[in-house]
Structures are given as structure tokens and as C-alpha cells.
Amino acid sequence: MDPRFWVSHHSLKAGQQKPFPFKVKATNQMGERVESQTSPPTSLVDALVGDSTEAVSLVDGLLQDATRALFATYGVKFDLDGTQIAKILKSVEFLGMIGFSSRSLGGSLLLALPLNVLERSLPTPGGSPADWCGELANQLLGRLKNQLLKYQVVINPSLPVVVSGDGMCLPASTRQITRYFSFSSECGKIFVRLEMAISPALELERQDDKQREDSIDEGELLLF
After folding, report:
1. Distances in Å between the alpha carbon of 111 and those of 27, 140, 163, 183?
2. pTM
3. What is the pLDDT at residue 209?
4. Which of 67, 165, 190, 193 is the most exposed place for a label (fewest CB within 10 A)?
């Protein structure tokens, strides 16, 4: 089956879809031409220094914790593992993607899931796996957003996009930093890709909870 996509605007039905060839060509920030591929490109994180390196390490930890906590909410326990992304990609049938922006931090988050994980975590039996994939990507970014608020970083999410099909290829990485995290559970393996562009002026200083405004409950279901 050819990969398909649909913008997960949750007032729409999953069947309202358009064919879209999931091959991407783009120019990255280094001015290089890149294409979709099944193996992850090399990250530029090793070239960063000082505060930028610390910011990447912090966001890495926040995203890993957010991923485990999200799926635990829906009854699936995931542990971080070292499985190669290309190997997991062979069993993936859904990709949920969502972008975000702010003055100091911008990028996108990609959540790669097999059907079995989606069906196991669905809060409503018989629901649409495609819509649920988009909602999980949305909620994962929401959890990351809530954690970043503690460091006085406010990110603005876009609408999620879902791609479904066999023989998936990842879209090209076009950001300064690309991070991959694989997780395993009894019902399958998943991975998360985070692309980021970080402003050199970004300083992550944790804010006292008493000074921080209330954020959305991390277990709250947000349908568009």
C-alpha cells in the first residue's frame, strides 16, 4: 500500500485523505541537498558548545520522560532501548508529525508507531488509529511544552500530520539538530525523532513552580 497522509484536524474523518508521495527533498541549514531516507542523518549536536549543548541534553531528558509518561497513561509501559531506527522503521505503519516554534527554539517532533501499539493504547475501542496517532504526537509535544514552561520557554505547536502505509521512509531532516530515541514494550517498538534549531541566546533556567502560570493537565485529551 502506498503511503498516504492526512492532516489530523480532528473535526475531520480519517478517511478524508489525499495521496501524497512521501519523498522529500530539501536544503538543510548547511546548504546541503538532502532526501528522505530510512537511516537517520548525522546530528550536528557534537558541533555545539556551552549552553547549546546543555540545552540539547536537557530537552533529550525531558522528551524521554514525556514519552514514557504519555504511554503509561494509556496502559503501555515503554523503556528506552538501543534498537536501530532503521530496524524499527520496517515495522512502523504510522508516523505522527507536529511542528513547533518560538523565539529561541523551533523544530518538529515525529512519533513512529506500529498498529499494535496504537490499538493497545486507544482509549476508545474501535477508534481510528490514524487520528489516535496524530493525537499522541500532539499530546507528546504538549507534555514537552509543559516541561519547557518550567524553563521559561514557550513553544507554539502546529497541527499534527499523520502518514500511514507500508515501507515507510523518513522525511528529510532539515534542522540544525536531529535526535532519535527508541523505546520497547511487550506490544512493540517505537521511536521518536526530535529536530531542533536553537538560538545561541537560549538560556534554560528553571523557574520556581510558584512563579509559573498553570499549564494544561498532561493527561488532558485535546481534540481539534
Report:
1. 23, 9, 10, 11
2. 0.74
3. 60
4. 165
